[in-house]
Specification:
With about 550 residues, the chain is α/β, with parallel strands linked by helices. The chain has 22 helices and 20 strands. Strand 16 and strand 17 form a beta hairpin. Bound molecules: adenosine monophosphate. The site of adenosine monophosphate (AMP) has 15 residues, from helix 3.
Length: about 550
């Protein structure tokens, strides 16, 4: 599996800057193969699964071409089978064009207000990402003109065919000039796909990622379906319960490595990071401390980890699901001490990453077991047991004479032996700044998320939580709270039940944790436990309340 750094493609400065901002360290295998071919103008057929970095593989050359030509109007059309894919591809392209003012990207898909899309298209766009039905709708209305398209991309073409878009593809392609570059990505190469390539492509080059034999024997593999905002808490709990030190944690970007290192250090874990931006000396230092056992957790990108010889770690965490199944196998291959099976934990957020996980299971032909994040009670139990073992070992093996005298002195001063022990226990368990007690509110957030995923019905979940929690809803909670402001109020018909229902249903935070709701004419405020505020705000900003989009933020009274 060959990969190269992005600078070897000779990309323009604003694109390189964007790649650097996002934090991609190196091109993925599919990008390594596709980008040079597409930049040279060839048509390309890519056989590749989702999650391999294929969006950037076709988007980067398209952006470079539009930049080089300097023309305005729709020049690249990307057809995707579903709205989720269209939105995701659009987001990725916007990230890649963040420093390019002349390139505008829009996603057009069914289910969204068409007038809004017409307005966006009317302002002038260079890249259109759309689902076939909605693209044709705009073509019929005359709001999307494809006469200037130079690059046409069919993403997940096999999915599009299985969804019955074959005729739509014909109609759309008949409106695109024959003098164009055509790209097709598909996980499978059926005869129907080959027929499309024969009709619409010009001497295409086929690229596929050849995989080696992959084995992941002797490793217990688990995955956790959790929102992004809960990953740090989830990681901490797994570390606290399993104690797999030394552990390796893999992230997909340099930025994520840096962020996670500081978050874990703040929580009192002895963690260090490793990525491509670090000088050799700094890397050597990190590796020496990790090997000598002074550092418990090594957080790394795939690229940085490739150059180091580490094996036999207690557990490997895929904090980000890897881009390629081979990365997955390389990553988890580092766990497993002599004679003992290894442990691999993977965090999965959303249906798309779930599909990536399934493709990993297909390739490795091994089950990755769904598991639940330990509850706060389990974390505490595990800490208690550890502490008890430590105390026993100390009583049995160490000379405590001097310390016993100190305790006797304290008892003489009037403290009870239980008080002394409790104070010492507290200081031991909160040493290094580690959170004293995991939060119960987070338990609900984890459970709520899982329930939502399993039932697939948000409404049902929301109701479930509300019924069980009516009584205590407005009680003052003992945990610290944060106040959230939303830009919706009584003038829009907002009632407290709408806030409770949306927050409970969308974030999994039970209604009893939502306190002091105040509804004004144009805005409303309410309390949530402080540690859940960021996640609640994040989720609310992506959802609707009584059918309206809302903006949520912290409220400063
Ligand atoms: P895709 O196959 O396009 O759906 O990409 C899957 C994920 O990989 C997306 O979250 C991308 O942001 C990410 N990605 C794409 N290229 C790279 C890269 N070179 N290094 C790390 N992550 C990447």
């Amino acid at each position: 599996m060959r990969t190269i750094p992005f600078y070897e493609f000779g990309l323009s400065a604003p694109v390189m800057q964007a790649i650097d901002d996002i934090g991609y360290e190196e091109a993925t295998p599919i990008q390594t193969q596709a980008i040079p071919l597409l930049i040279s103008g060839r048509d390309v057929i890519g056989q590749s699964q989702t999650g391999t970095g294929k969006t950037a593989a076709f988007a980067i050359p398209a952006i470079e071409r539009i930049l080089a030509d300097g023309e305005r109007g729709v020049q690249a059309l990307i057809l995707c089978p579903t709205r989720e894919l269209a939105i995701q591809a659009c987001e990725e392209i916007r990230k890649l064009t963040v420093h390019i003012r002349a390139i505008h990207t829009v996603a057009i898909y069914g289910g969204q207000d068409i007038e809004r899309q017409i307005t966006q298209l009317g302002k002038g766009v260079e890249i259109v990402v759309g689902t076939p039905g909605r693209v044709m709708d705009h073509m019929r209305r005359g709001t999307l003109k494809l006469g200037g398209v130079k690059i046409a991309i069919l993403d997940e073409a096999d999915e599009m065919l299985s969804m019955g878009f074959r005729e739509d593809i014909d109609t759309i392609f008949s409106a695109i000039p024959a003098q164009r570059q055509t790209v097709l990505f598909s996980a499978t190469m059926s005869p129907e796909i080959m027929e499309i390539t024969r009709l619409y492509m010009n001497n295409p080059e086929i690229i596929r990622i050849v995989r080696k034999e992959l084995t992941v024997e002797g490793i217990d593999q688990y995955y956790y379906s959790i929102p992004h905002s809960h990953k740090i808490e989830a990681l901490s709990r797994l570390m606290d319960v399993y104690h797999p030190e030394p552990a390796m944690i893999f992230c997909n970007t340099k930025k994520q490595v840096d962020e996670l290192v500081s978050a874990m250090q703040q929580r009192g874990y002895v963690a260090e990071g490793l990525h491509g931006d670090m000088k050799q000396q700094a890397r050597d230092h990190v590796m020496n401390t990790f090997r000598s056992g002074k550092v418990d957790i090594l957080i790394a990108t795939d690229v940085a980890a490739r150059g180091i010889d580490v094996s036999g770690v207690g557990a490997v965490f895929n904090y980000d699901i890897p881009q390629d199944v081979e990365y997955y196998v390389h990553r988890i291959g580092r766990t497993g001490r002599a004679g003992k099976s290894g442990l691999a934990f993977t965090f999965v957020t959303g249906s798309r990453e779930m599909a990536e996980l399934r493709s990993i299971m297909n390739y490795t032909r091994k089950e990755i077991t769904k598991s639940s994040i330990p509850t706060s009670a389990q974390v505490m139990q595990s800490r208690r047991e550890r502490f008890a073992r430590k105390v026993c070992a100390s009583v049995e093996n160490e000379d405590l004479g001097e310390y016993i005298q100190m305790v006797e002195q304290l008892i003489e001063e009037g403290f009870s032996s239980i008080e002394i022990a409790a104070a010492l226990l507290r200081s031991e368990m909160t040493a290094d700044g580690r959170t004293a007690m995991p939060s119960e509110a987070d338990d609900f957030a984890f459970a709520g998320h899982e329930r939502r995923r399993i039932n697939g019905s948000r409404r049902q979940d929301g109701r479930e939580f509300r019924e069980g929690t009516k009584a205590g809803r407005y009680e003052r909670r003992s945990c610290p709270t944060a106040r959230i402001h939303i830009n919706l109020g009584s003038s829009a018909g907002l009632l407290p039940k709408h806030i409770v229902g949306t927050v409970a249903g969308e974030t999994g935070l039970p209604g009893k944790f939502i306190g002091r709701i105040e509804i004004n004419e144009r805005y409303a405020t309410f309390d949530v436990p402080q540690e859940t505020a960021a996640a609640v705000i994040d989720t609310l900003n992506k959802t609707r309340m009584i059918g309206r989009k809302i903006t949520a933020r912290l409220f400063n009274e």
